[in-house]
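ok new one. same drill as before - structure tokens go in, u give me an amino acid for every spot. 217 of them this time. try not to just spam alanines like last time pls lmao
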């Protein structure tokens, strides 16, 4: 059965791929799965019909037969568990890949989101510069540890996995901040992931929502 995901009808980033439907699209492309996309407006996201799928009135959601899921991490894990390509078969390697998924969402993403929220909501405060500097130092701590672990490797644990997919999705949110450039191996890691054909297909598909030029096929 072909799943249906939801995405913004109009994303504030205008197709830069920063909204969280992108990680789900990317996982589906890595898994070689076709999918439908239902675009939702900000108003519709808060209506009962969408809240039945997503208790917090957000995107992305994932529907497949009787199954309805929310939370991008849970959706990527579901796709990875049911299709080859995103989790290793070896049980220990699989557990480590899942640990990296949690690390991306639970350890690396929070200070990055804190920075984003501060820049949206607190930019005009007198103490903004000091707050930003503190948050950026916390991000640097995480990036430094991650860069140390990645070293010269291509991926976090031998082969590309859903752990890399989520970690890269999180790091991409630093685009334009200059923070990633302080860690050349992490910048190269993101670029390597973005060069994957599955990423390129997913990116083109989400961009097409804004340009009105659907990719062929
Ligand atoms: N933890 C949830 C998950 O991982 O799925 C978080 C879901 C979430 O934050 N969804 C956002 C949403 O629906 C879209 S992705 N927001 C609307 C609302 O809460 O009312 C966050 C996002 C939005 C826009 C950009 N952008 O334009 O750059 C980037 C990221």
């Amino acid at each position: 059965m072909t799943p249906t995901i939801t995405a913004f009808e109009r994303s504030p980033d205008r197709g830069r791929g920063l909204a969280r439907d992108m990680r789900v699209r990317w996982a589906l492309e890595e898994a070689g799965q076709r999918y439908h996309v239902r675009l939702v407006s900000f108003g519709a996201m808060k209506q009962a019909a969408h809240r039945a799928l997503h208790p917090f009135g957000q995107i992305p959601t994932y529907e497949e037969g009787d199954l309805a899921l929310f939370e991008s991490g849970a959706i990527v894990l579901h796709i990875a568990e049911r299709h080859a390509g995103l989790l290793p078969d070896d049980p220990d390697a699989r557990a480590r890949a899942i640990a990296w998924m949690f690390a991306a969402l639970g350890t690396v993403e929070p200070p990055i989101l804190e920075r984003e929220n501060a820049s949206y909501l607190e930019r005009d405060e007198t103490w903004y510069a000091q707050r930003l500097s503190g948050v950026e130092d916390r991000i640097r701590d995480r990036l430094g540890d991650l860069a140390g672990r990645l070293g010269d490797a291509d991926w976090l644990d031998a082969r590309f996995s859903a752990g890399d997919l989520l970690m890269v999705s999180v790091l991409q949110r630093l685009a334009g901040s200059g923070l990633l450039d302080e860690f050349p191996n992490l910048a190269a890691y993101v670029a390597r992931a973005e060069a994957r054909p599955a990423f390129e297909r997913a990116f083109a598909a989400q961009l097409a929502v804004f340009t009105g030029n659907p990719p062929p096929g």
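The mean pLDDT is 96. and btw Residues 38 and 76 are 18 Å apart (CA to CA).
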